[in-house]
Fold:
Amino acid sequence: MQNRSYLQRNHLLHIVLVLAFCLSVGFCLTSSPTAAFAKSYTMPEVQIEASADSAGDLSVSEDRTFDFDGSFTAVWWNFNNLPSGAGIEIESVKVTAGGKTTTLPSVPFQTSWRSAGGPSKAAYSFDGAEDAVYVFYNFDDEEATVTLNYRVLNAVQIYNDTAELYWQFVGKGWAEDSDNISLTLNMPVPAGEKIVKGETISAWGHGPLDATVAIDDTTGQITCDVPHLSAGSYAEIRVACDPGWFSGVTQKDPNAHFDIARLDAIKSEEQSFADQANQQRITMLVSLIAIVVVCLAICIWALWSFNRYGKELKPTFTEKYWRDVPVKGEHPAVVGRIMRFDKPENSDLTVTLLNLVNLGAVLINKASYEKDGLLGSKTVEDYYLSRAPGYESKITKEIDRLAFNFLFDTIGEGAESVWLSSINEYAKKNPSTFSDKLADWQGEVTARTINGQYFEPYSKAKRATMTAVGIAAFVIIMLISMFFDNFLMVIPGVITMVFLLIISRFMERRTQKGADAYAKCEALKRWLKDFSRLKERPVLDIKVWGEFLVYAYLFGVADEVIDELRDSVPELFTEDATLAASSYYVPWWYIYSTHSMTNGMPSFANSFASSINQSVAAVQSAASGNFSSGGGFGGGFSGGGGGGFGGGGGAR
Structure:
């Protein structure tokens, strides 16, 4: 039970780490929710051109590009944030998709279309009660650009000392992120008028801190560039210019406020916004520098930890070849763990059975039986295992005893012999018992590996700590980047997490004893492959080669060793070759390799390994079924948030 408890704790640790990583992925999906759904869309580009006239009206042409993943039938814009006295007129709507541009007709709006449905044709409709325009068109897994031309009446407010346009050109109501937003805005600059930034015209941008606003020195044209705008955020422009440019506005117009001074209030408010934005930039820059420094420190700590606790020790055994078992008295399954840093594998059981055969505790034979099928019965050739006479005295290690009992008492239900095919059948019928017994046996191998002191006792804890630190750093940095809405901050966190996850894979270290054992494994493997080329005369004792071939299978070179033996000592095979090809007798070498035979049956080792793998897969399948500037000269954006017009939009 202690062995199994150890495995359960080890599995629990891996589950916790996987959950932590899934949590970090969840944060990523939270910051980009459309990634979690099959039907989604993005808005990779938005181009807006606008011009104000002398009457204070604003003509706008917006090209919004959608990249649809799935089928959509409508997109819409909300203009529910118009200033007092303003109105909106939709002039035209076009859709460009698949290289074709379609001008859509206008149809009367029906209130039921706000949530679903639409006209029976491609068209657009204006919801006057909600100041929203709906574009009805069948989009299907494609990129399309919707061009919306509209006019905002009385958009520019005229005061006695300035004219003000306060425009939220992308509203915070959009359901998805918008990328690569550009705005070009022209004010009605009279011919010959000299542009003096900060005097005749000032412009401020509000929104993401990495966005920019600029004024052309000659024409007074204002441009805004917003690289990325998250859903729920906004981008707006505020312009203050010479009120004399709006000669078409009269006292009776709703956008005329000739008795009110406004310029000082605008500049004071914008200076406050700019100060706040600049403070945010400083805070963001300091935070980014701090994140980079912390991530660098974590990476340095990881390298130091690896050099101190994870770097493999140099073995004291340095010979090229080894002509004996790697560790005297140690079980081959444990030797396999030494080579794989204590990683359990199904092949451990195969190696243990081969060891039982070599000990003389298990006999292997082949035979045939009739099996019923859909087209009648058929003859099946298969291997079967039998208890050897006096097996009790030959099994001295607990690893062998548990494996023997698992095969004959659990799967064979106490029988003297067990067909190889019955292993898979038992696993399918009794997945829980099969899994529990296999876990108990693997737990014994793990316990023996730990007791053998082949690995540093702190190895797994160091690896888990490094993995946890990497994931925790990423999650914390992700939260910070979401707070500042700055993806750049995530990059050091991603690099740090990946770096620590890679380094953590190498934090498990063998002890000096384990390093020497591993070196002897490699030296023995090298000798098994090269002994014939060394002109050495191998021993003729089949018992010795039986033990060596257990390790040859463990090292993955059994076929090569059999071929080497055939060439160098063919007399080892002469006695059994004919029987192996013509009867149900299984010679010693047939257990490992049959590629030179013609009867079509695979080697016993490969057959048993395949049976165990299929059984474990069946058990796993059964288990898985349950479950800025203040002066207005241009520069960066600031906070703001008081502009009108755009409420947002969406698609369905």
In short: The radius of gyration is 39 Å. The chain has 15 helices and 22 strands. The chain has a mean pLDDT of 83.
